[in-house]
Task: structure prediction
Amino acid sequence: MKYFIVTYGCQMNVHESEKIAGILEGLGYEEGKTREEADIIVFNTCAIREGAEDRVLGNVGNLKKLKKKNKNLIIAVCGCMTQKEQTAQKLMNTFPFIDIVIGTFNLPKLGYYIEAVKKGRQLELFSEGDIDEVLPYKRTSGDNAWVNIMQGCNNFCTYCIVPYVRGREKSRKEENILKEIKEIVAEGKYKKITLLGQNVNSYGQDLTPQISFAKLLKDICALDGDFTLSFMTSHPKDLTDEVIDVIASEDKIEKYIHLPAQSGNNRILKLMNRKYTREKYLEIIDKIRAKIPSCRITSDFIVGFPTESDEEFNDTYDLAERVRFDSIFAFMYSPREGTVASKMEGQIPDKIKHIRVNKLLALEKKIQKEDNKR
Ligand code: SAH
Ligand code: SF4
Ligand code: F3S
Result:
């Protein structure tokens, strides 16, 4: 029996697909090379922007033919799209040939659902599980091993769906993280370890006793073994001097920070609920560059947030020009149902979003060209 997994979205999802592969191999499935030869196809979905959801819908629709040819084919859809009850319902109604629709919180029960489907039942459930639940991973990212240190997000940036589909912030216990990393190092196959969380800088704030992200980094670096450590994603409001100092002083930590700015305009940052100002962001960048001159810095930006004027976009452009990021991701704002920003007046037409995103990308290209020349 063979499985085929299709993954959308962020590194969290890539890592979650390793969990799915682990579960399936535990049930006796082997990895298949194509959808055609698979006995089970799993779509691990993303809901961050409309485009991401549209791609999933198109590709799931295409499976109808395969299902016709192979009546025993099991099709499962999981991930951030399915954690939204409305979307999950819509998926099941539009594509009645899907066997399993399972939310992010219920992934550990995937094996149970597969067995249930084989017995001819269709089930779905929404509830939150335990982050320290141990599941087998089938690591698939070459010499990089992903390690989840927390899940969920408490920040409720007004544009973002993540807190709704991933729940509140929950940190794993430090001892469990250290144990997992020791095992990874002992395997001897991995040169790089990447810690994952939506906002790694607030790691440990929900634990008793509390522990800081800086302390976790130090404790990981103190482990024996030859590995490079990196992490994502950092939220500027929680990036402490202590973390910058640890990155600077620990040889094992990669000199790289992904620090999404989202906007360079204070009014828009406030509307986004990002909880820092343009000045504060630039101050952090200065600190990083002063303490770690060789540090690569990358960022995310959203253009066309509701009510964003041309002048306000120019502030974003100006910030990107000042910082000269090593690379940036620029996204057109996409309204997500249920979020605060989707209900705001002054939604910006796509045409304008396109112009702004292209301006930012052209700037990035220009900067990279100049840097390469140097
Ligand atoms: N936790 C990370 C971001 C995760 S989402 C952080 O806070 O930085 C990755 C990126 O997608 C975000 O940084 C943002 O730039 C973008 N994004 C999130 N929601 C979006 C939306 N509704 N429309 C467009 N881009 C969005
Ligand atoms: Fe979304 Fe903001 Fe949380 Fe990042 S910090 S996941 S952008 S709500
Ligand atoms: Fe997408 Fe979910 Fe990641 S919405 S970006 S897969 S946390």
Q: What stands out?
A: The two ends are 54 Å apart (CA to CA).
